[in-house]
Fold this protein.
Amino acid sequence: MGALLKDGLAESGARAAAPVAVSPPRAKPKFRAWWMKQLITWHWISAAVSLAAMLLFAITGITLNHAASIAATPVVTTAKATVPPHLMRLLAAPHAADAPLPDAVADDLALRLHLDARGRPADWSDNEVYVAMPGPGRDAWISIARASGVATSEVTDRGWIAWANDLHKGRNTGGVWFWFIDVFAAACVLFSLTGLLLLQLHARRRPLTWPMVGLGLALPLILAVIFIH
């Protein structure tokens, strides 16, 4: 009886001392974590790059939509000057129909009329030279009588809201702003796509993700089909 008890205790101790098999931890989804990190990085970079311009374009979208109800009084400024005699020969010389003003003439008028016509195409006729200098939120021109050298200028300023609206449309803003709009648009596309992919990665824990995305896609289409004719 004692032997049986000893054997039972020994067997119980052996079972207690036997190592318990532990299943190895499941491997972390390293690719998913790397992909998430990349998306977050590009998402915040594109957001930082496009934030200020996105605010500008959003605000000017509202002002453009309500342009008819936003009162603006254009301010027209005129001035006159006379080209010095020693520069008159430059005006009398033959020129191509759209050649810019000679640099010396343009520099002189910039001092007298405070308008820079350098490098801008001019309209040459037998009697006058006309240079249009439109810009965002304004219209401007210089007209020079080739015989007398009398130069007349006019500037129409339509205000800062018109200036911002023209930036939105890229109207008379020059080549640098033209390329900035393209870069900004690309940053917005990257911001939107990375945001969509981040939504996809979190959609399992957020059931309203795809209904909201679908609503955002369907609503403008529905309004366009029903109300735009």
